[in-house]
């Protein structure tokens, strides 16, 4: 294994990867899908570490496994810094939540019973839905290159919403359709 695969960048760039994913890890609450808009903004728009196409590929790959944010962090870390970058980005993404959960586990049971805490948590839902829809629209704009892509996207949406089709099956079907239809 060559040095570039293991350590694709220098210590400064690895430190930058760690810092970005630590910051992302601090807002990693409510599940991985909620972070897709944050990740897209930070990794594609702000830092330019991934292209929109790479980001979409990373999100698609991450849907095949449990822990989509971990896989996306690993993917971005590998693209930016080889194996070392992948490890650093993954650990950094989970470190804040792990530390916080270790500290707050005993308080959580009491706090979630409080009416005020429950109301605050319930009020997050509309904002979260808005972020997810905005992210889906942004990814959709970059992904739909032909009318066939729009049709495939709509079929996938119906398959998920109506028939609860596995993401792995949808991605496989999309790949087969892409080969058969072409770009």
Tell me what you see in this structure.
80% of the residues lie in helices and 0% in strands. By secondary structure, the protein is mainly alpha-helical. It has a domain of 110 residues. It is globular. It starts with a helix and ends with a helix. 23% of the residues are buried. The mean pLDDT is 82.
Task: Please name the defining characteristics of this protein.
183 residues, mainly alpha, globular
The largest sheet, given as strand count, sense and whether it forms a barrel, is: none
SSE pattern: HHHHHHHH
How many strand segments? 0
Instruction: Estimate percent helicity.
Output: over 70%
Shape, principal axes of CA atoms? globular
In short:
By secondary structure, the chain is mainly α. It is built from eight helices and no strands. The longest helix is centred in the middle third of the chain and has 44 residues.
């Amino acid at each position: 294994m060559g040095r570039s695969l293991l350590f694709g960048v220098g210590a400064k760039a690895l430190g930058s990867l760690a810092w970005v994913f630590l910051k992302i890890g601090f807002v990693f609450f409510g599940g991985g899908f909620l972070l897709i808009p944050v990740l897209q903004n930070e990794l594609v728009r702000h830092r330019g570490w991934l292209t929109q196409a790479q980001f979409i590929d990373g999100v698609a790959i991450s849907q095949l496994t449990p822990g989509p944010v971990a896989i996306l962090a690993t993917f971005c870390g590998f693209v930016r810094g080889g194996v070392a970058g992948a490890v650093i980005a993954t650990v950094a993404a989970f470190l804040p939540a792990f530390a916080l959960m270790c500290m707050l586990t005993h308080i959580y049971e009491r706090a979630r019973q409080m009416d005020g805490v429950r109301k605050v948590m319930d009020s997050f839902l509309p904002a979260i839905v808005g972020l997810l829809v905005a992210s889906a629209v942004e990814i959709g704009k970059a992904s739909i290159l032909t009318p066939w892509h729009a049709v495939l996207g709509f079929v996938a949406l119906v398959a998920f919403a109506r028939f609860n089709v596995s993401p792995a099956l949808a991605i496989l079907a999309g790949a087969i359709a892409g080969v058969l239809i072409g770009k």
